[in-house]
Fold each of these.
Amino acid sequence: MSTELNTETDVREYDTARMEAKWPAVWDALNVYVADNEDTERERFTVVDMFPYPSGDLHMGHAEAYAMGDVVARYWMHRGKNVLHPVGWDSFGLPAENAAIKRNAHPSEWTYANIETQAKSFRRYALSLDWSRRLQTSDPEYYRWTQWLFKRFYERGLAYRKNSPVNWCPKDQTVLANEQVVNGACERCGTMVTKKNLNQWYFKITDYADRLLDDMDQLEGQWPERVLLMQRNWIGRSVGAHVTFQIPAVGEMNDGDARPEASVTVFTTRPDTLFGATFMVVAADSEVAMDLVAPSQRAALEEYRESIKTLSDIDRQSSDREKTGVPLGRVAINPVSGEEIPVWASDYVLADYGTGAIMSVPAHDQRDLDFARAFDLPIRMVVDTGEEDPAVSGVATTGDGVMVNSGPLDGLNKQDAIAAATELVESRGTGEATVNYRLRDWLLSRQRFWGAPIPIIHCEIDGEVPVPDNQLPVELPTNLRGEQLAPKGESPLASATDWVNVTCPICGGPARRDTDTMDTFVDSSWYFLRYASPRDDKEPFAEDQVNKWLPVDQYVGGVEHAILHLLYARFFTKVLFDMGMVNFTEPFKALLNQGQVLNQGKAMSKSLGNGVDLSEELDRFGVDSVRMAMVFASPPADDVDWADVSPAAMGKFLARAWRVARDVEATEADAGEGNRAMRSATHKAVHDAAQLVESGKFNVVIARAMELVNVARKFIDDGNASDPAAQEAAEAIAILLSLFAPYTAEDMWELLGHEPSIARAPWPEVDESLLVEDTITAVVQIQGKVRERLEVSPEISASELEALALASDGVKRFLDGRGIRKVIVREPKLVNIVPE
Ligand code: ANZ
């Protein structure tokens, strides 16, 4: 392998190919990156990169993310921590299955081949990973414990099965996740998606909604603010009230068309506006709508329901869409005013949020106002905010104000009116205060092959029977291939009859295995815990180990996982805490989201043809140059545009830094005897770099290293190669660079006469006295005449300056033994001495 750099005379001795060939074996032999490899008493620091999906070789996005995590891991190694920086693969999932169908193979073949490719690239990329803890979620030794955990959740009532409508692609015969439905159509084949009722497994994450919200206090300032916000919005806690409206019967008794009396409960966050409710809306696709609808309106409702079937929740609630709906031919009675209001069905009310029914207050809710205007329904202002009447302006007012048109609530402000209205309905038994969440239980079952089988057996006599622990893992059959893996309306596992048909562990009678597999988010909800004791075959992880290494000190990964993965991992951690298996409630103390790697302003993609191949870049410029260029391009959280990145220039810089190490002359002298200005530059750079790494400004660390290289180069060229300050500078440069450019740094370390590995070299100690900015000149006067000039720190204290002045040669000489009557100090610039 030759690199472009080697062809330039300027850098001919800096040979990336030689370094890349030489060092990995040395690092392996020394077990440099293995956690606990020295004395195990040191404080731990755990850095976890979100583990990759083995979709092919590593790409530019991986290159950036893993370079960032590596800076953190390497920094804490230099700082003497016992660092755990593990690696694994999220290796179950759909692409492997699709590839297997296409190639008439088993998904494991594609998966493990890709893992090997990525593992090789990780090594070449010189990440400080502890390979001894490597794991793969598709290994039976791993998913055995995924199944074991599922069982514990099941025993605690946190895993359950229920019939529910799911997105269904009639062509592919498969369930689709919401993200796989694009504009109402199947992402893969474009067929319009419908809803189908299926028996599905759920985790009861809603039981943990409050804790998932409240524990975010622990993460404040340590996680990106926008991620915390997304988590909060996803959980969506709304405080409000349930209010029940009576719906009088319609039609004559004994008349086939009659509908009996009913009641409908609405969820509202604004009980204060109860007197402004001028109509009620129920979700058109809800059972309630069908129960309520008057016979004369039934056909219209059914037609309307058909028309909204393929709309997503987002479309339904979009404020841009014209409001649509059908009157149900019924009225509801306002429980506090006794007023009769019409009941409508519409798509802007969702069936599975709140109670699926709302009281509409058009004056103070824009969606209700748009609906009222579309169907000419009354608009009544009940909060006077001082703004124009919404009935006139067409803009609902949502702020605070004074209650009007509201009987007993008149004159109150919003907060007091919310409390008073809640009390009012509670006292009448027609409502109560309540908290509602947007969060839904986690649908975890998939009718797919390449996932962890759900460890449940269905028996006609005993019902759902968990597979006994000592029979785990329930391994996937190995004999299905190609087309046999294609979805057919039920899980492909159903066709493996040998596998499916078992005897019931309780009664011994004939029974069937559950044929669903788990969502891969289940696998990734606990892998970081498994890193603590990855080879444990008695339990998912050992208690002492998990509490030693976790929670993760620094988690690194893409913002695309800001919601689901993090929420699920947090949920698992809390359940395991409740089970007494871990002693912490949050899995990731700090989170870093790296930006995306773009090219010419756009995400790299095959269709745009702007993709950049990582391995080609590595061949061309060398690993270190690519890594450094990537980190230098922007602050870690910002996007990097590869078009603006210059690995070639970075290669030149690295060569220049490398030559500093080559050109210094070894000396036995103590660094303290070295040139002060050079030393000061070194110590300042090291001091700043530590602060910059800890505050996540990795790109600026590189800028500081560049400055130091310039100063050191000049110092050497000025004939100071054997000054101990030159050696000190070169060592510091090597350690700063080792955060980003491990090959170059290791080579420099060797040139400087040290044993490998630089990764274990302690961070240079900073001499505070060398950090003093510039000195300024203080003038010492005796009887008004300048007798001495002193170079001092601008921060010098009065007493220090006085002491320096009195001890100075000039002052001693001019005082010549006389006593002192008075000293006036104006630090840092002037000392005036009045002799006796
Ligand atoms: C009356 C009202 C008056 C409302 C007002 C708002 C403003 P969040 O905060 O998101 O929880 N709502 C309730 N259930 C709904 C559903 N299934 N589909 C669509 N909208 C629904 O929103 C709660 C508010 O959204 C509730 O409070 C309800 O409208 C509406 F001036 O009730 B409100």
Amino acid sequence: MTIKTILTEPNKILRQVSIPVTKVGKEEKILMNDMLETMYDANGIGLAAIQIGVPKRIIVMDISNKDKEKKPMYFVNPIIKNKNSDHATYEEGCLSVPNQFAEINRPSTCEVEYLDYNGDKKVLKASGLLATCIQHEMDHLEGILFIDYLSKLKKMMIVKKLSKQKNKVDRIVV
Ligand code: ZN
């Protein structure tokens, strides 16, 4: 398994719409293994393939308690069905928007159809943190980041901050 570089806003690749996977083969499994390793290394609970620059509709997640046994989840070509009209609010962050957090409102439960690590079709009824996390990750497949739900001004401030961090160079006096 290889730890990959996680792309951060304002990298334009993050805005690409990811493409469905035709089959879960060896290449996809290697990708999922690398994604999981990268996610754990960055202390995240979810990662979409596009966040490491691969525009495939693949997500990995692990929302289990850090101190306990790891419970990785793999979602290939996920489709959301039956979103609840009730909403829940979580303070969200994102590995592609480092050190920035905001309260985001999303449907509190949803059903997800997807292929698992072995390419088998599955349906998951998600609620709580799991429902929020899967919706956040699925936004990545459409090129959407959580900051897109914020006001223009708030979003601009975050993007500006991130751009500054990126352009930071060492100052030398000679
Ligand atoms: Zn994210």
Amino acid sequence: MATTNEDNLKKIISHAKEYGYVFQSSEIYDGLSAVYDYGQLGSELKKNIKDYWWKAMVQMHENIVGIDAAIFMHPETWKASGHVDAFNDPLIDNKDSKKRYRADVLIEEYIGKIESKNEKEVEKAKARFGDAFNREQFLATNPNVLRNQAKIDEINARFKTCMNSDDLAGVKKLIEDLEIACPISGSKNWTDVKQFNLMFSTEIGSVSESASKIYLRPETAQGIFVNFLNVQKTGRMKIPFGIAQIGKAFRNEIVARQFIFRMREFEQMEMQFFVRPGDEMKWYEYWKNARVKWHKSLGFNENFYRFHDHIKLAHYANAACDIEFNFPMGFKELEGIHSRTDFDLKQHEKHSGKKLQYFDTEQNESYVPYVVETSVGLDRTFLAILSASYQEQVLEDGSERTVLSIPAFLAPIKVAVFPLIKKDGLPEKAQEIIKLLKYDYSCQYDEKDSVGKRYRRQDAIGTPFCITIDHQTLEDNTVTIRDRDTMKQDRIKIDEIESLLKSKFDIKKWL
Ligand code: ATP
């Protein structure tokens, strides 16, 4: 039986749990919905992804600096940004299953089904025409595909009109006209569509009368905007320049399924790039390309990535697109690139009464800069890497292995060191090797079971190299080093290990 997307996601969730990558939060109390904890290997992988992003965005750009702003911000921040009034999702309940859905997601999924019909047409035609097949030409001329595309365009146009005019009854009518049924109950018995604000709130201050309501930030970006002048002045930054930040964000998501794809507490890696008004489209294109290049640098199949232009622009944007990734549950947003105009800075000027302008010495004038934002979810990047890396392989000798082919420099454990057996001084020699390497690499020592079993354990957690110490090591100071992906073993001198590993983990090969 063919495996379904759901099966694939389940496999990844259970592998992540079994090997200490991701646990459900407060599991002993049956968990907390859409909140997860990263285990001993997950936290390492997460840290390595953050480092890679920070290197690419901050360290390698002279004109980008990083900050670490607080999660709590003055509540006026969120009035200014529009989140208090407009950070809503349209929700709809099915009266029979009592399940809650995002109305926009129901419609998107409907469209997704039509899109996959088109993909099936493409696959059929490809098989029929072979090498002579031209995808673009086929998509532009095949009557079935054109009919489907016209339907997609019509749905999108109707949805956009409804959302732009706050016509929630129109959204419900669209769901009814498309005959969308609840996946659980199968019924089309829907409530009205309502707007639901996604921000979590709490109170600051110890005395209840004087305590005031504050929010847990729903995005890290505002911490950058309110610090725009602090950083520009103290860092003597000249436009165009960027401010980057990695940090937690919180959203009370309506539908929180699909593992770490949609969480209520998650982490974002964001960069706001401040540019001259009028230059924003040039930089928008620049960052679109730069960011997709960063994702592709990880070395997974290029077809895992695609752009998706937004139809309904957020209140602050004049252009926006997503970089989508082919997750186990299909293509979904991994990163957003938004041209946010001067909306945020102007709003903060208005609400704070402070000027947030930049004096451009070349143009001899002051202005509020425009902003291009790149915003990628750390947890979604983690899930993308985990799911693209996960492989169940049948080897030449008929045996099987599960391997995580995580890009070597991101792997939680870089090197495992094994003594062939637990005696004759081999464990001591193995510990010596670990002592040599642990300054630069996370290492794991393992002496239990056969070497073959130890290899399998390291494959399953994605360790790129295993070093084995045997009796010959004691004679001539050589070891075997085994490559996770090729499974090839080479005999090398101990004093060659460091330079070999240095070349294998050199991020210049990726970036
Ligand atoms: P979606 O449409 O999936 O809800 P979004 O468009 O609201 O996402 P943005 O506001 O653009 O997301 O946030 C930027 C990035 O933050 C997203 O591309 C995603 O990677 C990440 N992100 C957003 N919401 C969540 C969440 N609930 N859980 C995990 N990551 C998230």
